[in-house]
């Protein structure tokens, strides 16, 4: 049943579950009217390609709610207008570690994630956003989630104020979203490195062995790797190393190695930068023309970001050894060239603020930004064992960013 909130004698706000048969057109109209993150004076918009739940449908459990303005007009002619929406999903992730028989083991928690909260421009400051969050949290708690978290641009004052003020969330982590344009020329990949595409079973073994104690690591990593949007997991190895499967690698790894997976957001949604001047658009067009005509010069160029473009998301970065960052940069170059073949506009990754790889991964500052993750405990009757209250824990060197939620 929808939850009603009186606005006037003839107008109420009803919050109900999204109906794909009747709501998709109005939802996309609201989505297209809302910017999702500032780039200086520019704004970034999403195009959901006709599927409003595309960003959550790959999660183990998900829900989408809409806020609908209902006006009976005082004459029995009811009018309904969708003015906001919210999406949420639930999964099990690593929230800490414990020690058993000289081994470090992950501690898991059931975690909910809020994304895609939108309220139309003409219906803001009416409490609609907080009501959507509250209804979503009820669903989270009813399905056993112990914590809820959101990610927002650190510079988005209105969103930060809503969640940390009215909704009771606490600032938790500040990872960096690193964005790099896909050039018309290919990036160089070191000839001292061999890049191997892992089988699904080898990729799962490697991630569970090396990353299961990493904060936010999804316990259903197999579902992530088996998803059709996952383009593969790639391992950078020394040129002389002979790959013979994950068992041999895990028992006797080389001194230096790096791993990375690629998620195809290009088939899920498109982004578009709006608000650019004709001069800026003309400059970007010129850089592309020059780069295509003279690719051997390897000049940086700006892709068609002022019209809808796709992206690949790089996740699961990790590795070991004194040359680890160099190997990771080789993987980045490989990923760039893969995105070029797939006609993406940009590639992006998200890394912990404490991660040393953040300084090594190429990115453009004008396109990149600091993310703010805020967290809320949904109840006080949980037993977190050795972790305690996760909200009070200190950040580690790395986090695992689930591509299903980017």
UniProtKB/TrEMBL annotation:
Superkingdom of this protein's organism: Eukaryota
GO molecular function: acyltransferase activity, transferring groups other than amino-acyl groups
Domain N-acetyltransferase: 13-196
InterPro entries, alphabetized: Acyl_CoA_acyltransferase (IPR016181), GNAT_dom (IPR000182), Plant_NAT (IPR052810)
Gene3D superfamilies (alphabetical): 3.40.630.30
Protein name (record): N-acetyltransferase domain-containing protein
Highest classification ranks of the organism: Eukaryota, Viridiplantae, Streptophyta, Embryophyta, Tracheophyta
